[in-house]
Structure prediction request, 576 residues.
Amino acid sequence: METFYVTTPIYYANSLPHLGHLYTTTVADCVRRYKRQRGYDTYFLTGTDEHGVNIERAAARHNRTPKEHVDYIVSELKKMFASFNLDTEHGGYDIFMRTTEPFHYEAVGEFWRRVARNTTPKGRECIYKGHYVGWFCAACATFKTEDEYQKPASEGDPPLCLVHETPLDRVTEESYFFRLSDYAETLLDLYESRPDFIRPEARRNEVISFVRSGLQDLSISRQKSSVEWAIPVPDDPEHTIYIWFDALSNYITALGFGNEERQRALGVESFGKFWPGLHLVGKDILRQHAVYWPAFLFAAGVEQPRGVIAHGMWLVDGRKMSKTLGNTIVPSVLHRHFGVDAVRYFCLREMAFGQDCKVSYEAIVERANSDLASGLGNLASRTLTMISRYRDNSVPPAEVPEERRLAAKRAGIDADAMDLATTLEHARDQVLQHFDEFAFHRALEVAWGVIARVDKIISDAKPWELAKREEQRELLDSVLYRAAETLRWLAVMLYPAMPEAMSEIWRQLGQTSDLTHQDPAQLRWGGLIEGTRIGEVAPVFPLIDKVKAMAEIAMEITETKVTNEQQHTETRATQA
Prediction:
């Protein structure tokens, strides 16, 4: 069986989770469920990056040790994932990777040693000791070049990070360096030989331009006196490993690379089985994943990833949503008011993968009501309710008798369903292609085109009128069957995007098999068997009262802000 390994970034454990974490993990979950439907043996990783100076500072602000702080953030992140059915129990991630795991410490040390004992493509040592002088962003955990920060308004003030708009730290200290400058041609050859290694194309072009402009050697350590909360450099306890060298390694250490005990715990040769993996990341950390990580892997003699796919940023009031900027959308509020699959649908439908996208609570309500409650939910509800009411909960026959075909044509019904079957087959092929290309918004647009088509069939045929006349029985049956069979196709095709809701529609259609392994490529017209008893009919996507929801959300956000401000004040008072 072919394998497929998909990863999210491991999220930096300095503050509470937000929509950005939820989005990337939802996309990875969607990809994993789709690949599993298609017959792949899948492995899905998410987790937390738990080292570095920003963790130390966040812990100090909350009067915690770094370990206490990351444990708290991890618990909150896991709660969020569980509430959105992204955890292992609900068929989500296979591993929640933490960089504080003992096996990871050992494996990162082995990864460092492999890089250190090898030479670059130009025959020089990969790692050497020198001195770093420059600016460092604790929030990015990245050293900044002049084009990556905003000059201060007042002389003597530190520059600001362009991403987080926070002051940078001036660093002057001894450091180990990775000789990144020797890997420019090797990286460009990789990008040229594998055009789909970085997607979308606009991001690929950005990375190529960056590499062609000239690479500088990368500081990959800090002195322990500056950053103690980190993995020690092998054989040099006065230095700790740069957190990106540490964090990026998690994608292979989780599979058992560099640690025999971890390999035994997994019970299989997981590294050889599942690597290489596909990395889903935000565009703000593309450079680390598409430049630094491949260079580290080349230096260590490890196979390159399957690819790196970068999504855009969520924008709130025109600005990037960020925990540092304090303009985040709160996942617990989303869950409480909209439920799991309405949020999943919004994320996958609204954002064209790779582009930035505006988000607001109002926009989520509008999508949920127009597309789900009034669209797919309405189609499911009225189709299944009519089967329950007019056909005693039993799927009617699909065929229109020969003597009724002329009447069917007059009623706008395709007697042999070939037109609708062709529409569904074309939609299926498009959905498969779009999922393969990570164009989730396009896949969902195609599906909603099908919904509109079947809605028109129902509106034109008026089954509620046909039900009043016994001689129209066969025409009523054909309309109800076509709508129900379309729902069966939609449930299979849309399962990766909305697993909970599609499983409910599947159940209401009287299907007892597991959607997890229903391959959409195998869908054929007529799979819904005549006489199947449908399940209890219930609304899948209830209509949301927008005015009420927005008033409640506004109150919750205000209360959350007040609580956060009180906690911040108490923390500062305690520190004083």
